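Re: the request from the purification team.
They wanted to know what the chain is likely to look like in 3D before they choose a buffer screen. I agreed to run a prediction and write the result into the notebook, where they can find it.
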Amino acid sequence: MSASGVRGGAAEAPPTVVAQTAVDILDLPPELSPFRRALHRFLSHRPALIGLTVILILALMGLLADYVTPFEPTRVHVHKVLHSPDTVNWLGTDQVGRDVLSRIAFGARVSMSVGLVAVSIYLVIAFAFGATAGLLGGRVDNLIMRFTDVVMTFPSFILILVIAGILGPNIFNVMVIIGIFGWPGLARLIRGQILVLRELDYVVASRALGASHWHIMFRHLLPNIIGPVSVAITLGVAGAILAEAGLSFLGLGVSEPTASWGSMISQARGIAYLADMPWMWIAPGAAISITVLSINFIGDGLRDAFDVRGGRVGG
């Protein structure tokens, strides 16, 4: 009797989940366009909204750092070297008396710039290779994918370290290097999406009617790969920020006196700093963690927003 009841309860669970998914989809008015449906689902994803709010605040802080920070990031206060947080220097000062809060704000400008520019560079490269391979197929596809496989066999971060060491620490070098070596994974994603979409009936019909490759790409394929590509881009921005922080920590990224979160943590190496002056490393470390976590929340929201199956929203 009891075993039968247990089996019956287990059998009734899946319809409940399906019903919840159906409600999520049917709650949206049928006249909404796919974009507005995706926007509605994104705005219903609470962690994504929190992440977007945090990123907007950090972006504004970086853009307006010249006006909202109490001190210049390179201004030295010789009488307040390694001073703990107080009412004047809210996050304390570093080894030469520079205000940590001001450097965090200017570091946000560097991190956001590196993330956006580096991802923009490898998005262009990835789209060129991935779209060409997926759309043309055949020998072109094989040639591009074998080249992509070769690039993916090299440890990208090691290559970035070597080239950064050769070219020297510079923010523009960091942007270009990360952008050049970040494209293979995204190219494979774009190519895979196009290979699936190109076999759909409406794409085949468009090709049969004599539509050009460019027309098929921008009219039928590109709008349908925005979802997965946008998720990959958000993860790429987070990865680029972490890569820049790592390079700056090793002295191969943004050079002094330019403020960078990675270089700020690098300056706090040593037991004395870790134990007695935690404001030196907690603030930049928290800035990196919060930024990357917020970007990942946005990526989760975009994934759910573009998921045509609906699914659970709201975090």
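For the purification team: Confidence is low (pLDDT under 50) at residues 1-23, 310-315.
Please add any questions underneath this entry.
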